[in-house]
Amino acid sequence: MTHLFDFVALSLLPPWCWRRAAERLRAGDAPHAVLRALLDDHWRNEPDKASTLRSLAAAAIGGAAHNAITPIPWSDAAYPVALTTIVDPPPVLWTRGGVASLSTPAVAIVGSRAASQYGLAVAERLAGDLAARGLVIVSGLARGVDSAAHRGALAAGGVTVAVLGSGVDVMYPPEHAALAKEIDVRGAVISELVPGTPPQQWFFPLRNRIISGLSRAVVVIEASDKSGSLITARCALEQGRDVLAVPGNVLSGRNRGAHGLLRDGAKIVESADDILEELGMPEKGAAPLPSDGRSGKGVTAALPVDPILACLIPGEACDLDAIAERSGLGTARLLPRLFELELQGAVARVGGGRFVRVDRSC
To answer: Could you give the percent of the chain with pLDDT greater than 90?
Structure first.
């Protein structure tokens, strides 16, 4: 519990501190030591700063408990591993709904707030098709494409995550309060901002790095050349995620940003299959891989050891950088494979974005 207070206190520092905080945490420093170092460097002349932050943290934690809001600190095994790979992960995620949805492979769908009927229909259809395949749909609960994507996932019986630019108990836009409650039932509403934080304009570009950070790919629908969705796409590229875009009407002007992404090499999306292909996911009903033909006469061939499992020693926690170095795989390819191994029970997540191999020999 003490660590939680320190992580919340870190989250109350300005966002420009979070990158350095993440570097120190990855290096193994305790959160209270990271907090102390940041305060010594930047608030040396404010000796009461630490006690003030911890008082605010205590109030935030108490208010969250009263409103059924779960704080997930960076060290918690429930903290999404995908998010630990970005350079400035939030020290704490405040969550309404189910935390399990944060660790399932996800695709972000973002786009215009003033979307056309075509854009809304495409967002809803893509989200529904992807959710039906077991992918979580991540978006920002904004008007237009975002809300259509959330609704499409829910209509398909799937899971969706909404990332807010306010506290999770402060709904913006207010007319989406009912939608947020639906998302709570089969997904999660999350924010890096402490409960009670009202929306501010600069919070929304900041939260876009979380939308992309949670996702294996970002799909852009109807983005103008000044759309906030392009910020999400830029974050995705910086984080090593795939960026895809849906083509649209060239006469309206509302698609210039998305078409610019296509010119720059983003994959074109005409159906959910295009996204699944980019993610390397097999088509529905695909046959299992054939054997190598060398195990005839009733003798079963020995199964090869998974190269990622071969990099892990049972009982030894290992972070993503170490696994990537040992396996030779980049983070973008490594994360989805680790998720699959976790679902199979072959690996387990521990705090701080680390994995441990599960010894099932006994």
So the answer is: 52
